[in-house]
Amino acid sequence: MKNYAKLLEGKYAVVTNGGDPCGSAIVKKFALHGATVAFGVRDIETGERILGEIAELSPESFYLVLDLADSDGIEEFCRKVKERFPLTTVLVNNPYADIGKTITETTEEDYRYFLQVNQRSIMQTLRAFYGPMRDNKCGSIINISSNTVFKPIMGNPFLTLSMGTIGGLTRVTAFEGGEFYVRVNEILSGILPGQSELSPCPLKIEGSHVEGMADLVLFLASDMSSYITGQSFTVDGGARRQLFA
Amino acid sequence: MRYDKMLQDKHILITAGASQIGKACALLFASHGGIVAIADKDKEAGNDLLHQLKEYQEDSKFYHMDFTCSDSVRDTCDRYLSDFGAPDVWVNCEGVCHPAFIDEQEEASLREMINLNILSAFRIMKCLAGPMKEKQGGAIIQMISDYAVTGANGVSAYGATMGGLFAMTNSFAMDYAPYGIRVNSILLGISLSAMGDIIADEMEDEEAEEFWVRTQMIPRRGRVQEVADTALFLASDMGKLITAEGFFVNGGQNSIAHNQHYRWNWRANA
């Protein structure tokens, strides 16, 4: 019987972006369930604040300042985490690029920025952490993309474009990792990067939305989902199926 | 929420819950503090499970129910509602499969599948939806074959009933979302169905093993406990954002080409 109160007991987890509302909810949830977490944040203040909240639960956890737009920075981040963690078995990619511009307003720089933050950053962390997971036949990778992949919102073409590739990368990694019991899943999140609520949301939800998102990530990270891989889960309170409000 | 008692004092109804996946859900939910009631056509298996459930919770109940008969379904649901009130969680595991190619499929067997796979779910939904709506909350979990979405060889008629059930479940979810009722499906792979037993029984061990390796990302059969864990996630507050979604519990079968010659060729050349 599993210990449901400590679903990630003794595990080492990496969350690439632990600074935004969703990311920090995930970091705290993992710590609550006994994991040691390494997470990236964009500034020291955010890192210290989150670390302060989990210090008692998970004293070995740490943060590193990380800008997902800086590919050398990501390599550095992965290297430092691997120095400190014996074996990372949970990886959460939670990229955040989000600029409101229509197609005609976007520039080549915007395009490069989106592809680096939402796509290449994931490839980089996979290269760093997938290999050891495969060699040890244990691991769960969760890639968080956006529900705008299938139901685009106005004025953010590169969000849909860059996030749209995460599903394919998820399935191909799941395919490679399947026989080594490395599971890879995607969450099409209805909570936009940096936000803390689903909008719009037909479902009446009580309490914190990011908490619910963190619970799904926990489910996928833990052995509760041991037969689930290569899947994409849409979290939007049913908004994608709604015709009439 | 306490994660070791995720369903503390919740009222749970599991239809077709006396064996296999339903039974695994019942025992797991009871261990998480839920008050579990089972409805099933199999009296012996039902009473057997009831004994085990009573060790967790004295109030557990078993109802004998004939899924093919709308009077029996209404009567059972009425008895449940008067015993416990509207359920917090309803899990439906009813389903029957008669695989055949279309030219060999009898219309009668399709009718039976429509009756048991779609109509029985509809009948129970119809009885429970009103009281759950009044209660302003709850979770419904429908066990469905992943053929509802993917289709496969030899299951045209069965797949049609499963697809119908999936569509009905998703639309039902939208109707009751404003009342805080979450409705989701678990899309089960072949290894968790009766077909999985047939493959395990009739094929040589080596051949069966090769089958799972060839058709799935995770190269083994699924376990009913893995389905129960997913149901627990959806039934409890852990799944509070999730509605109108299908959770594939199939080892990644739907995401790969079934004939993985590419993988083996690549291996051979590597």
Question: Can you tag this structure with a few keywords?
Answer:
A: alpha/beta; Rossmann fold; seven-stranded parallel β-sheet; 7 strands; 40% helix; 16% strand; globular; B: alpha/beta; 50% helix
Mind sketching the topology for me?
The complex is a heterodimer of chains A (245) and B (270).
Chain A: E1 12-15, H1 21-32, E2 36-41, H2 44-54, E3 62-65, H3 71-84, E4 90-93, H4 108-135, E5 139-146, H5 157-163, H6 166-177, E6 182-189, H7 209-221, E7 232-235
Parallel strand pairs in A: 1-2, 1-4, 2-3, 4-5, 5-6, 6-7
Helix pairs in contact in A: 1-7, 3-4, 4-5
Chain B: E1 11-15, H1 20-31, E2 35-40, H2 43-56, E3 61-64, H3 70-84, E4 89-92, H4 107-135, E5 138-145, H5 147-150, H6 156-176, E6 181-188, H7 194-202, H8 205-215, H9 224-235, E7 246-249, H10 261-269
Parallel strand pairs in B: 1-2, 1-4, 2-3, 4-5, 5-6, 6-7
Helix pairs in contact in B: 1-2, 1-9, 3-4, 4-6
Give an account of the 3D structure:
The complex is a heterodimer of chains A (about 240) and B (about 270). Chain A has about 240 residues and is of the alpha/beta class. Chain A has one domain: Rossmann fold, CATH 3.40.50.720. Helix content of chain A is about 40%, strand content about 15%. Chain A has seven helices and seven strands; from the N terminus they run E-H-E-H-E-H-E-H-E-H-H-E-H-E. In chain A, helix 4 packs parallel to helix 5. Chain A is globular, with a radius of gyration of 17 Å. A seven-stranded parallel β-sheet of chain B has the order 3-2-1-4-5-6-7, sandwiched between helices. Chain B has one domain (about 10-190, about 225-250, about 260-270): NAD(P)-binding Rossmann-like Domain (Rossmann fold). In chain B, helix 3 runs parallel beside helix 4. Chain B has about 270 residues and is α/β, with parallel strands linked by helices. Chains A and B meet through helix 6, helix 7 and strand 7 of A and helix 6, helix 9 and strand 7 of B.
